[in-house]
Amino acid sequence: MKLVVGLGNPGKKYEGTRHNVGFEVIQTLSKRHAGGAFKSKFNGQLTEIGAGGQKLMLLCPLTYMNRSGNSVRPAFDFYKLTLEDVLIVCDDFNLPLAKLRLKGKGSAGGQNGLADVIQKLGSDEVPRLRVGIGTPREGVDVANYVLSNFAKAEKPEVDLCVERAASAVEDWASQGLTYAMNLYNA
């Protein structure tokens, strides 16, 4: 069993924002694999799918981005997982729009939700899939940028990227991190 966590903020106010691209990847995976209804568990919304010969628990924390670890840690403990069995999917404003980057460890790189997960799990060796949301123009406040919606012209590229990110999760689950990194980080 593996745990895939999509980071974002709960509520209609944040739907479609750059910061919620992790939630979108989880929703895409659930639809692709006929996941059941999401249930409230671990301070989040949880469903189960079968993908790549693996049982995947899909989790969207409802703790707000900066407290994502308060959802991830209880799920991690409950399922008695190792760090290698967890994948965090999050936005990254340091990556060009629609660029994917899989890594097995490292710093949070300014992503506060990922930073909280790393802190709560006590290790930076948790695999993550970063989804590029584009870099804010000079003078634009980062917080406002990540909480903004994608421009209409960006949306088709972002939709394709979310589909590719879901495929990256499937390949991570079935073939492992190194395989997925080689395929999607190019």
Going by CATH, the homologous superfamily would be Peptidyl-tRNA hydrolase
Low-confidence stretches: none
* Strand tally: 7
Give me the CATH fold name: Rossmann fold
- SSE order: EHEEEHEEHEHHH
Shape verdict: globular
Approximate strand percentage: 15-25%
Task: Indicate the CATH architecture.
Answer: 3-Layer(aba) Sandwich
Number of domains: 1
pLDDT averaged over residues: 97
Assign the CATH class: Alpha Beta
Keywords: Cytoplasm, Hydrolase, RNA-binding, tRNA-binding
GO biological process, one term: rescue of stalled ribosome
Binding site for tRNA: 14, 64, 66, 112
Organism: Blastopirellula marina
Question: If you had to describe this structure to a student in words, what would you say it looks like?
Answer:
The protein is an alpha/beta fold. It has one domain: 3-Layer(aba) Sandwich (Rossmann fold). Helices cover 35% and strands 22% of the residues. The protein contains six helices and seven strands. A seven-stranded mixed beta sheet has the order 2-3-4-1-5-7-6, sandwiched between helices. Strand 3 and strand 4 form a beta hairpin. Helix 5 packs antiparallel against helix 6. It is globular. The model has no long low-confidence stretch (mean pLDDT 97).
Q: What distinguishing features does this structure have?
A:
Rossmann fold, seven-stranded mixed beta sheet, alpha/beta, 6 helices, single chain, 186 residues, globular
Concise synopsis of the structure shown:
By secondary structure, the chain is α/β, with parallel strands linked by helices. It has helices at 21-32, 69-78, 112-121, 142-146, 155-175, 177-184; strands at residues 2-6, 39-41, 44-51, 54-61, 86-92, 100-103, 128-132.
